[in-house]
Structure formats: structure tokens, C-alpha cells
Amino acid sequence: MIGIFGGTFDPIHFGHLRSALDVKQALGLDEIRMIPAFQPPHRIQPTANPGQRLTMLRAAVGDEPDLQIDNREMLREGESFMVDSLTSLRNELGDEPLCLIVGADAFLKLDEWYHWQEIPELAHIVVTHRPGWHLDMNTASPALQTLWRTRQETDSTQLTGSPAGRIILQAVTPLDISSTQIRAMVATGESPRYLLPDAVWNLIRMHGLYGFLPIDNSTSLAKKAAIKTRLANNKTLRVNTGTDI
Ligand code: ATP
To answer: What is the pLDDT at residue 44?
Structure first.
């Protein structure tokens, strides 16, 4: 049984890495495929370019044997639809059970994904807890409520019995970390250290990603506040976006 962990990873952080490993261990998966999106269709576009995000992901995973990087969305280019990735994985892996791992925030928007109704036909869905997101299915769309009601599974051992089709809720180490928070910290001169691997933080500094500037203590609070306001208005700082690291 193989886990699929898709994301923008802009940048990869310990919330991604720890939940991937937690799910692998809890469900006894053979491996986890980390699939970085080339161009995520459901959200604002990433700040770092695809090559930079892939390089950071490689640095984060290092030689961890339980996590594999699968760059099929990078090679495919264009909009990265998970249904296309799962279809190609299914073609390669035959009847191997696949588990698509999504945080509660992502699951509550699943019905906005391209051809989303095909996804449970291609993989099981493992929904992980994420701090700040309460999975209240009463507030989900009627279509998602139906999906949940008809496919919810509480016994994880049942997942191995079929290649796809069930949905399970899986607790993971609660780490209240997001890429948005890290980008904002970097841009305002705060250190995001210990929220993400040092190797990733080093790449961010080395290549001036996310508006990294070595802001010293003399940088005025007014200037920091102005940067924060700019970020809040979604005018994200874009640096080095044209080249790979
Ligand atoms: P951004 O803040 O830019 O939206 P993000 O931190 O949410 O980014 P993504 O790359 O968009 O990260 O997320 C990929 C997947 O990882 C999603 O399924 C998301 O729910 C999950 N995820 C992200 N952060 C965490 C976390 N701290 N704990 C558990 N799951 C997480």
C-alpha cells in the first residue's frame, strides 16, 4: 500500500514531513510518494518557482528511506491535477492500494478539485488532523457529506482489501505550521528556524527566497509592519522566480 502526499511545498516544512511519516507508520504503508505540484490549480500561485520548490523538497527529504520524491507533476508541467497523477500511478501500479493523504483543510475543499469524483475511484483518502481546522462535516457541501457518509472507514486494516474507495481519518502529530506563516516570517526578517529543516532554511537564505533580507535589529517596527501589511494584502514578494536553485 502506497501513500501519496501532494502539495505546493512553498516551502516544505515539518507539518508536511511529520504527518507523512506518521501516516506511513500508522497505516503500515510501504512508502510515501511526495508529489510537488508544478502549478497548483486551486489556490494562489506559489512564490518560489517549481525548480526551487523541488530543490527544497529534495533537501528536506535527504536520504530518508520512507519518503520518495515523485516529480511527475513537474515533468508534466501545466496545471497539476491530482486526478491525472493518480491515473498515471494507477496505470503503473496495477491494483496496488493507494492512499491519498490530505489535511482536513484540503479535504473540505476536495469538491473544488478537477474531476474530484474520480479520485475515490483511484485511491483511498486519508484525512489528517491539522491544527486550526475542525473537520465538521455538517458544514461541508452536500456532495462531500455524501462521499463521507458512504465511504467512511474506521478500521484502517480494511484499506488493504481494495485498491481504492474508502475514506479514513488519521490523527497525526499536531504541528501548527504553514508555508504561509514561514513566508511571512522570512519576509519580515523573523527566523522560521525549527519550523522546517535547516537544509531548507539554508537554501532560502542562500538564494534570497521569499524576500529574505538579513534584517537586523535596527530595522524599524514600522518597516516590518509595512511588509506584513503588504503580505496580508496578498502582494507576495517574488524573488528569483525565474531560475532554479
Ligand atoms: P500554504 O500555507 O502556502 O497554503 P501549506 O502549509 O498549507 O501551504 P501545502 O503545500 O499547501 O502546505 O499543503 C500540502 C498538504 O499538506 C495539504 O494536504 C495540507 O493539508 C497538508 N498540511 C500542510 N501543513 C500541514 C500541517 N501543519 N499539519 C498537517 N498537514 C499539513
So the answer is: 81
pLDDT tens-digit readout, 23-46: 999 999 999 999 999 999 977 889
To test the pocket of ligand 1, the residue of 178, 181, 194, 209 to mutate (highest count of ligand atoms within 8 Å of its CB) is 178
- Full DSSP string of 192-211: -TTSS-HHHHHHHHHTTGGG
Ligand 1 centroid to Cα of residue 57, in Å, is 14
CA torsion through residues 146, 151, 154, 156, sign = negative
The alpha carbon dihedral of 119, 120, 125, 131 has a sign of: positive
Q: How far is CA 121 from CA 23, 70, 107, 186, 212, in A?
A: 21, 21, 16, 40, 43
Q: Is the pTM here over 0.85, yes or no? A: yes
What structural domains does the chain harbor?
2-171 (3.40.50.620), 179-241 (no CATH)
Cα 33 to Cα 154: distance, rounded to the nearest angstrom: 23
> What type of residue sits at position 143?
A
CA–chain centroid gap for 111, Å, is: 17
221: amino acid identity, one letter: L
With beta carbons less than 8 A apart as the criterion, state whether 192 and 14 touch: no
Backbone angles phi, psi at 233, to 5 degrees: -80, 5
Does ligand 1 lie within 6 Å of residue 53's CB atom? no
Residue 217 φ/ψ, nearest 5 degrees: -65, -15
Q: What is the pLDDT of residue 215?
A: 58
CA distance 232 to 228: 6
